[in-house]
Amino acid sequence: MYFDELHCKITDGTATCGAVGLGYLGLPLAVEMGGAGFAVLGFDVLDRVVKAVNEGNSHIKDVPASAVRALRRAKMFEATTEMARLAAYDVSSICVQTPLRKTRDPDMSLVIAATESMAKWLRAGQLIVLESTTYAGTTRDLMVPLLKQQGLKVGKDVFLCFSPERVDPDNETWHTNNNPKVIGGLTQECEELAAIVYGKFIDRMLPVSGPEARSSPSSWIASSA
Q1: Residue 207 has pLDDT above 90, yes or no
Q2: This model's pTM is above 0.90
Q3: Cβ–Cβ contacts within 10 Å for residue 1, how many?
Q4: Helix axes 26-35, 65-73, angle to 10 degrees
């Protein structure tokens, strides 16, 4: 039931999309979502970031302020620091930073905090996509237990995927929309929903067998050709 409802919302463009974290990854993604016709709600913990976006400005070099202003004028993009509004998301992309520790392993504290916030306001019929750079197993081993605390079944009530970011700031050739996108879902239903929504604003999707999988270098070359 929830799969069909969300599938319809994504297909007809009535789904509310959002980026959790409006940095170098989240803001470009939010602008692409809005440009594809989705209503977008961006979330960030920094008041200055939210204020800048709502005033039609961009703090990310690769995102022109004119693109943000156009979406704001069309009432297609809004930013907030209010966690309770995460419940409005039909599709949410977690785009928080995972800086390396001194031990060279990623600091997962922001991913955990974002997932806990999502879980607090989780409702049936939502798709969550983790984009933050992390190690294989994060989606299944870290996120699923937190989401299950709400009594919802992943793959039936809510949907979860991993789609590793491939942002290259200042690259004049490869951007969010034309960079081939790997997507791996906890279930086939999860992957299908994510592929449909991302496929509306990204040129080439590369579905893989699950959230732990990565595509081979040859597939990247072939997809970019």
Answers
A1: no
A2: no
A3: 9
A4: 50
